[in-house]
From TrEMBL:
Residues 499-516 have a biased composition (Basic and acidic residues). This is Probable malate:quinone oxidoreductase. The lineage of its organism: Bacteria, Pseudomonadati, Pseudomonadota, Gammaproteobacteria, Oceanospirillales. It comes from Thalassolituus maritimus. Pathway: Carbohydrate metabolism; tricarboxylic acid cycle; oxaloacetate from (S)-malate (quinone route): step 1/1. Residues 494-516 are annotated as: Disordered. Transmembrane segments: none annotated. Its cofactor is FAD. The gene is mqo.
Amino acid sequence: MATNKVDALLVGSGVMSTTLATLLKKLDSSLNILMVERLDQVAAESTDGWNNAGTGHAGYCELNYTPQSADGDVAIERALTINANYEISQQLWSSLVESGDLPSPDQFINSTPHISFVWGKENVEFLRKRYEKLKDHHLFADIEYSEDTRTLTEWMPLVMGERVDGEPVAATRVAYGADVDFGSLTRNMVASLEKQNGFDLRLGHEVTALKKNGGNNWHVTIKNRSTGKKEAITAGFVFLGAGGGALPLLQKSDIPESKGYGGFPVSGQWLVCQNEDVIKQHHAKVYGKAAIGAPPMSVPHLDTRIINGKPALLFGPYAGFTTQFLKAGSRLDLLKSVSANNLKPMIDVGLNNMDLTRYLISEVMQSHKDRVATLQQYLPSAKAEDWTLAHAGQRVQIIKKDEKGRGKLEFGTELVAAEDGTLAALLGASPGASVAAQAMIEVLERCFRMRMDGGWKSKLKALVPSYGESLVDNAHLLQDIRRHTLTTLGLQAVAGKETSGETHHQERQEQRRSFG
């Protein structure tokens, strides 16, 4: 079996691996990169437009990012972090649009107001407190709040139609929120990578073995799923960005940092509107409050989507339980992931998350009538015959040991990296794709330290002007960067003037100089 040597092997062709490949080639075009994807097309699992919410998660509308404590206080720290990290993604996408590595922005991102909507006295009070805390921070300076039914009807006419008079309602809105077709974004980035020397994509291949050799390289065996033919790969660096498939591969690596990790798979479903007249009347992402025990991916929302260039209207997601780690995975995935070093944490999580268990059971048992009844809380005029059920992607939530050695369930994303920097894996779900740029920059910082110090940092700053600075702390920098990215990505025109493509380029050069 012949051996192929590469600088970096990236497992999975989703937005994470593709973002990392793009950054690596921008920082050093001479790198030899191999991307391996088990399916026969790019970005067909969690990254595909139909398999995720398509929300540019910035904390504008997602109420689970601003939890309320027992004493009524609203914590906004996580929303600030997610917002700043999302800005990093928009900076990278803007740079790639300007360099020609991405096409016209409307092929992957579209302006879609982000709205939080609640009803009932207690929920209205919560939203008001949330708004009061967020509006005073520069990251959320443009957030709007209203309890006025006429204003809310202007923002979301279908949601407000036929609603009971006198019921307390409130909403916040950020007009320049975005809908992102992460599948289209990723496929366009891969198309650009395939035009470059030193990048190879193997579709229909899977990793069957992963072992560190005597030096600093990994010996990896990949198999063609159609022919069964195997190939040996020697890689200086391995990234496991295979969504739910990353955990089993991380376990195969047997690095010390992988010990104790487990996964809890959750499936998702959408109600998809089939009535074109209804689709045309709604233009926003309207997020509500999650049910007790629900995972963050199950926060209900009524979404305007643009998927593969076509408008759509989705409501959900409705959660369910499955033992598969991937939509195209095996029912044995969960069982195979159990080992001696993660059995106790997984049992702990099972025993201590009964609210989640009850919630998932209730979701699985729902009928179409039940699902439509939930939809009607957000869209009172919804008719059952206008909506059909579609299956979304799989999400594998993180199970890990806490400081006491017991198991805990986490709903974010987490980077697990070998101490020597030769391997990294990304685990978890939301906010996921929206913060891919920041997540992959963390991979660079942890796994390519010497090269970052040797010149990559300045190159990275040209791609992401805020790199090395805090958008949470620096209001002036945020204002300049947001103004530029919103304009470049077509999410908001430059105030007070029309700007030509040539002027865009000139402004970008000036901003890069001012950002250092």
